[in-house]
Design a protein that fits this description.
By secondary structure, the protein is mainly alpha-helical. The protein has a domain at 66-185 and 235-267. It contains ten helices and no strands. The chain has helices at 2-16, 38-48, 52-57, 61-104, 108-116, 123-140, 145-149, 152-171, 175-207, 212-267. Helix 6 packs antiparallel against helix 8 (152-171) and helix 9 (175-207) packs antiparallel against helix 10. The longest helix has 56 residues, at 212-267.
């Protein structure tokens, strides 16, 4: 009986022993807000210490000079973009009406009076008025040395050339600034980038850390100045090419109108026009 009791004892102990839960050896998923996941918070804090706001806060004298230059370039270029756009729209909308009304008017005096009533900035009326003034001036001084030196056709042609050159020059107002901004703004921004990288490398060298996460932030901040320079230059270049094209078309209209005016005031009729009709 003792042997039976002894043989049953391990069985009873095994039956009454607590069953251990199986251990899960699979790696636990990282909680984005705990432990290593705290890197997300650290990354957010690191990003807050970078960017455009952080760049401005750490500007020195050179950085501020470069930034202010880019801002002034942008303001100036957009000012002339808007002014030239409105000016070309007004000129193109009035050009055909002004020229057609001038030629359709039966009396030359009424046509000149119509040109005098046009706005001050209307170029076609100014060209016509300069031509009329030159023709009247030459007519008043017939028999003088002026008439002997220049005949009527040459005198009118000279006045028209001056008028067309003057109005063409006014069309180009602001284009020099747009060309300058478009060609120099990227280099000004690059100067800010080089200066920022220089100071970033000095700070990195002083800290003794040269890992990629330490270097990438300051260098990336410095590249913002190059991006600003390109953002200033691209609209200026596009606007410059656009206005050069518009001015070329308008100058061609100036030349055509001036040629017709020369024929009219020198001979009394346009080319292809029959007198008496």
């Amino acid at each position: 009986m003792q042997q039976d009791a002894a043989s049953n004892q391990p069985v009873d102990q095994a039956a009454t022993a607590p069953v251990e839960a199986p251990v899960d050896t699979a790696p636990m998923a990282a909680d984005p807000g705990v432990g290593p996941g705290m890197g997300g918070t650290n990354d957010a804090q690191a990003l807050e210490g970078m960017g455009f706001d952080h760049l401005i806060q750490n500007f020195d004298a050179v950085g501020w000079i470069v930034f202010i230059m880019l801002v002034l370039m942008s303001i100036g270029s957009w000012y002339y973009i808007i002014v030239n756009l409105l000016k070309n729209m007004v000129i193109r909308s009035r050009a055909d009406r002004v020229m057609s009304t001038f030629w359709e008017t039966q009396n030359a005096q009424e046509a000149i009076r119509y040109m005098e009533d046009q706005p001050k900035g209307e170029p076609f009326s100014k060209i016509a008025l300069d031509c009329a003034v030159a023709a009247a001036h030459h007519q008043r001084h017939e028999g003088s040395r002026l008439v002997e030196a220049l005949n009527r056709s040459e005198f009118i042609d000279r006045a028209l050339r001056q008028a067309v050159a003057r109005e063409s020059s006014r069309l180009e107002n602001g284009l020099t600034l747009l060309a300058t901004v478009g060609s120099t703004a990227p280099f000004v921004g690059l100067l800010g980038t080089v200066w920022g990288i220089y100071h970033a490398l000095i700070r990195i060298g002083a800290s003794g850390q040269a890992s990629i996460d330490v270097v990438a932030g300051p260098v990336g901040e410095a590249l913002i100045m190059t991006a600003i320079g390109l953002a200033v230059a691209i609209p200026a270049v596009l606007a410059y090419n656009f206005f050069v094209r518009l001015n070329r078309v308008t100058n061609a209209k100036f030349d055509t109108f001036a040629h017709d005016l020369h024929d009219f005031f020198a001979t009394g009729s346009r080319v292809g026009e029959v007198k008496g009709k």
